[in-house]
Structure formats: structure tokens, C-alpha cells
Amino acid sequence: MERASDLIRRWYASDVRHGRLSVAEAEAGLRNVHVTARYADIARAACVIESVPEDVTVKQDVLAAVEAHTSADCICASNTSSIPIADLAARASRPHNVIGTHFFWPAHRYRLVEIARAAATSDRTLQRTLDLIHCLGKVPLLVRDVPGFFTTRIFLVYLNEAVALVTEGASVDVVDAAMQAFGWPMGPFQLMDAIGLDTLRGIHHSVSRHFGDRVMHMERLWPLVEAGYVGYKGGRRAGTNGFYLSQEKPAVDARVYGLLDREERGAGPTPFEISVRPIWQMINEIGHCLAEAVVASADDADRGVVLGLGWPALHRAPLAYARWVGVRNIVEQLHAWAAQYGPRFTPSPVLCEVAQPSRMTTAAASPG
Fold first, then answer.
1. d(Cα 176, Cα 189) in Å, to the nearest integer?
2. Residues 136-153: what's their mean pLDDT?
3. Three-state SS string across the chain, please?
4. What percentage of the chain exceeds 90 in pLDDT?
5. Contact assessment for residue 78 and residue 105, using Cβ atoms and an 8 Å cutoff
6. How many CB atoms lie within 10 A of CB 6?
7. Residue 219 in contact with residue 207, Cβ under 8 Å?
8. pLDDT tens digits for 241-276?
9. Checking DSSP bridges between strand 112-116 and strand 98-103, what pairing results, if any?
10. Domain made up of 149-368: CATH architecture
11. Phi, psi of 142, deg, nearest 5
12. Confidence at residue 235, expressed as pLDDT on a 0 to 100 scale
């Protein structure tokens, strides 16, 4: 409780310091926050959103406790990023009230919320949840109730390819610099230090059996977790025990290379590969998601990656970027990498279809 209260106070103080809120607004916000460790205190809640670790049993236990202490009309929402809502609702006494509301970290900054509806989720629960999301000033993205939903799938293949590049001989800081040059505020390894490798392992465990080769290189990271290299996770600054020695003066901890089971191949990945493989795998995974109707449209896919993952504004949106590069060019290169590195690069059916000459759209002069 004390840690949660302190974190909330620090977030408000940061927003005041950066001019996003006035002192009066921050004080008013803090007055509306009530921290408790007792389920009995949520008895009158109209909606409860759990945000415990990505473990089915833990989440089911929490949802059961919420149901036991709230009204028959209370929405039981899960802030899961990877576990299907149908799995979480399997033990629920009121499965029609259970829904997925995946907020993005930090939730007070990111506008997107993925909404996942299980087969048992009622229309009323969905509508009330959408009303709540709109009241919070957030943008809902309806996604199919499948492992990883939409954004987690896109995010994991991006991280997976960054790890693959390093296991093939690239340096952690070089990969991070390449992704920052593309426009991301943080490189993938800096981001993994911020999230925590132990957190990522839980997410990966929930989805890995469904996506196989496309996320298999993430497993190279688990020896780091066992050795205590989990990252600073938004908290500690110096002595982080992550890929970097500290957040203030980023220098890669060379010891991580010995734990990554590297398979250096000759000269290693080319500068071109380092600069585009993680990005083009994201594009390819968007194609897989569209083929599987995980999101309803290409516009929804773009919206999810821009608002949920912070796609660089320089490149407008991922599918606009793909059109600028040339979808056919991406598909041809993916085929070449599939022959060289394995089936995780196999182009998605949607990309292959769009790459057909009759479906090609004339590319603009720039992605912006």
C-alpha cells in the first residue's frame, strides 16, 4: 500500500513539474485516490479492474474475491496483456460481467485501451466498459479474445527480433541506437530493462505456444532472469542488474553477453538488417493479425500501434510506412530472410496479397 501511494504521488509530482497539471489539479486528483488492502472496501464499486501478475491462477483468484465482495452488477475487468478473457472467466460465477481492459504502462500517459470480450461477456458489460473508457478520455480498441490480443503480439515479435540480432553478433547498444534512429524514444533493450525481464517472461509464457518461432528468441533471456538481471523496472536507477549498468549513464553490462547463448555467424547481421528487421517483423505480425481478424481493420491496426506502442510520428503509421517502403519489397525481403534464418520470417497472407501487382498502391514520396 505504501509503495502504491508513493508511486501515485510521484506521478502527480512529475506531471506538475513538467507543466501537465497545476498544483491544484494534482491535489484534487490525489484526494480522489483511496488506497486500501481490504476487499470489503470495494463493495459499492461499479467496476473493478485487476492488474496483478500475468498468471491465470492468480488472476482467477483475484476475480473470485472481487465477485465475492461486490454486487451482482459489478464489472470485473482484467488488465491482462496476454491471457484470453475466456480463460480468466472459466471459474467466474458471473462470467457475463468479465471483460478485458488492457491499459498501457504508464496508464496515465497512454490513451489506448485494448478491450477484449469473451464469448460469455454480455452486451451490457461491453457497453458500460466502453462508456467508462470514454469517460476516462481514453481510446478503446476492440480486439479478438486470443492470446496476446493485438499489441502484445506486435510488441513481442519486435523484442524477439532485437534479441535475435544480438544472439547473431550485434551489440545491445547498436540495436538500441538503430531503433532510436528510427524514431523510438527508447531502444528495445532499454525498454526491456524498464519493463522487467521477469514481467516479460510471464507474458511470453502466456503466448509462446501459439506463436512458436516468431517469439522463440525471447527464451534466450530467461538465463538472465535466473541470474538476477531483471532491469530497473521503472524504479531503481543505479546498479540496475539489467542490460545496462545504470539508467543515467547507459553502458551495457558486458556480462549479459555470456548469458545470452550467442551464435555469432561470421560478420554478424548487416547494418541494414539491424535497422529494419525488428520493424519489418512488426509489419508482418500486423498482417498475421489482420488475417486472423484480431483487429477489425487496417485503420484499427495502425491506431493500436500508434497509440498503444508509441509508433514514431516521423513515420506516421506502420502501414503507411509499409506502403512507402513498398509492400512488395518487404515481402521479397521476408522471403529471403525466411530462407536464411527460418520460418519466423514467412510473410503473412495479407502482406502477400497486398504485394500482388494488382493490389499495389502507388507509394508516396515519403512516409509522412
1. 6
2. 96
3. CHHHHHHHHHHHHHHHHCCCCCHHHHHHHHHCCCCCCCHHHHCCCCEEEECCCCCHHHHHHHHHHHHHHCCCCCEEEECCCCCCHHHHHHHCCCHHHEEEEEECCCCCCCCEEEEECCCCCCHHHHHHHHHHHHHCCCEEEEECCCCCCCHHHHHHHHHHHHHHHHHCCCCHHHHHHHHHHHCCCCCHHHHHHHHCHHHHHHHHHHHHHHHHHHHHHHHHHHHHHHCCCCCCCCCCCECCCCCECECCCCCECCHHHHHCCCCCCCCCCCHHHHHHHHHHHHHHHHHHHHHCCCCCCHHHHHHHHHHHHCCCHHHCCHHHHHHHHCHHHHHHHHHHHHHHHCHHHCCCHHHHHHCCHHHCCCCCCCCC
4. 73
5. no
6. 10
7. no
8. 789 987 676 789 999 999 988 876 677 899 999 999
9. antiparallel
10. Orthogonal Bundle (1.10)
11. -75, 125
12. 52
pLDDT in tens, 329-344: 999 999 999 999 999 9
Query: Cell 464489472 sits at which residue?
Result: 75
Q: Is the pLDDT of residue 217 over 90?
A: yes
Domain locations in the chain?
A: 36-143, 149-368
C-alpha torsion angle, residues 8, 83, 293, 131 (rounded to 10): -40
Provide CB contacts within 8 A for 14, sequence distance 6+. none
Residue 266 burial (CB count, 10 A): 6
Q: Which of 43, 288, 299 is nearest to 156 (CA)?
A: 288
Q: How far apart are CA 213 and CA 343, in angstroms?
A: 7
| pLDDT for residue 237 is more than 70 | no
Mean pLDDT estimate for the chain:
90
CATH label, 36-143, candidates 3.40.720.10, 3.40.50.720, 3.90.180.10, 3.40.50.1820: 3.40.50.720
Q: How many residues does the chain have?
A: 368
User: Which residue, 178, 212, 217, is CA-closest to 200?
Assistant: 217
Catalytic residues: 102
